[in-house]
Amino acid sequence: MRDTLVLNASFEPLSTVTLNRAVVLILQDKAVVEQSHPGLRMRGAAVDIPVPRVIRLCRYVRVPFRRH
Predict the structure, then answer these.
(1) C-alpha distances in angstroms, 8 versus 41, 43, 59, 66?
(2) Is the Cβ–Cβ distance between 57 and 21 less than 8 Å?
(3) Which pairs from 58-61 meet CB under 8 Å and 24+ separation?
(4) 6, 15, 17, 24: least buried by Cβ within 10 Å?
(5) What is the H or E stretch that residue 19 is in?
(6) Using CA atoms, how far apart are residues 28 and 32, in angstroms rounded to an integer?
(7) CA nearest to 27, candidates 60, 52, 61, 53
(8) What is the SS3 assignment for 8?
(9) Three-class secondary structure of residue 26 per DSSP
(10) Which is it for strands 31-43 and 13-17: parallel, antiparallel or unpaired?
(11) Contact, 49 vs 28, CB < 8 A?
């Protein structure tokens, strides 16, 4: 699987993370799945979530402005 795109709460792209990190963020309710791989699901004893392609953080992360 490829990396998962992480969007800020305002839908701005921030970075990419591994599939494992994306699932952890979703399970901790720090992110929600915006787009998933069609037909692929991750199943566990208590969870059944789609395999994320794009996730969005629930809280806004301030990104410092860079001057060139």
Answers:
(1) 24, 26, 8, 17
(2) no
(3) 58/9, 58/29, 58/30, 58/31, 58/32, 59/9, 59/30, 60/8, 60/9, 60/10, 61/8, 61/9, 61/14
(4) 15
(5) helix 19-27
(6) 10
(7) 52
(8) coil
(9) helix
(10) unpaired
(11) no
- The backbone torsions φ and ψ at residue 33, rounded to the nearest 5 degrees and listed phi first, read -80, 125
Residue 29 structure tokens: 């309710």
The residues facing 63 across adjacent strands are: none
Q: Please tell me the predicted confidence (pLDDT) of residue 64.
A: 87
